[in-house]
Design goal:
InterPro entries: DUF6414. By secondary structure, the chain is α+β, with helices and mostly antiparallel strands. The chain is built from seven helices and nine strands; from the N terminus they run βαββαββααββαβααβ. It is 34% helix and 34% strand. α1 crosses α2 (77-87) and α3 runs antiparallel to α4 (138-160).
């Protein structure tokens, strides 16, 4: 990263700490102390008359001061780990050439969706939408009732979903999808919604572990061997979540990643 300055909006401290503990033989550095010492010497010479004594007396005194500075090393840890990973050649900068489990660096435009925020706002927004629908004619009332039922089903689904924040980083050729912990965001997710529309402006970079590659032939790859051992209930579980993934998860042509950091360069 050199001497450049970067604006981080997400840092996975726990994952980077585990990498740091493996890269540093001394383990995870959490606190750093720097001590500086300054010495000052003074010489006082007492001369004597050459007629009486040949020579003289010299008196030397020294004063030493020390200063100790304490630093929270955890703040510098993420950048130090990223620099070390890059120095060791452990970061693949071409996502198309990366293998599963590799750390990749991918750049593009950023989109963030907070399902926890959506869950808290879905019903008030739904009621506003239903209230604004016309209800003068019998046909209007039927349409309104049908829409109410449709939105109720969707709201129930959103409210039961884990309160995750999902992101998508994409360029003109590829897209990487994943979820992030709201606790590791440097700003509140509402900040993105209130400031921006579909994407967050700027060239964003993500350092992440590659978990999934685009599915071939526009169909999700299924491990046929695993199907032989699945119970009927497990098969239903997989089928339901494959449908759910199609609604709100990773697209078939997207990469799946577990992010370590999301940032942009300060120009």
């Amino acid at each position: 990263m050199g001497n450049s300055l970067y604006d981080f909006i997400y840092i996975n401290h726990e994952a980077l700490s585990l990498y740091n503990a493996q890269l540093d033989k001394d383990g995870l550095l959490t606190h750093q102390v720097i001590t500086k010492s300054v010495s000052d010497q003074q010489k006082n010479q007492l001369g004597a008359s050459a007629k009486i004594i040949s020579g003289g007396l010299e008196n030397q005194s020294s004063v030493s001061e020390s200063m100790q500075s304490n630093f929270d090393a955890s703040r510098a840890m993420p950048l130090n780990v990223i620099r070390e990973l890059n120095r060791l050649g452990l970061i693949q900068k071409d996502i198309e050439k990366a293998k599963l489990g590799q750390i990749v660096l991918f750049s593009g435009r950023l989109q963030i969706v907070d399902y926890a925020l959506m869950a808290s706002l879905i019903r008030p927004a739904m009621h506003m939408h239903i209230h604004e629908m016309p209800s003068k004619t019998p046909n209007d009332k039927i349409n309104k009732k049908s829409k109410q039922a449709e939105l109720d089903t969707f709201a129930n689904l959103i409210e039961q979903m884990p309160k995750l924040v999902q992101f998508r980083l994409f360029d003109d050729n590829n897209s990487a999808w994943g979820t992030i912990s709201a606790g590791n965001l440097m700003v509140h997710s509402l900040d993105f919604v209130m400031k921006h529309s579909i994407t967050i402006p700027g060239q964003w970079h993500i350092l992440a572990v590659l978990d999934a590659v685009p599915d071939k032939d526009d169909e999700a790859e299924i491990d046929s061997a695993a199907l032989k051992y699945m119970t009927q209930m497990e098969s239903g579980y997989v089928e339901a979540f494959m449908h759910l993934r199609g609604m709100m998860g990773r697209r078939l042509k997207e990469y799946g990643v577990s992010p370590l950091a999301i940032f942009r360069k300060v120009e």
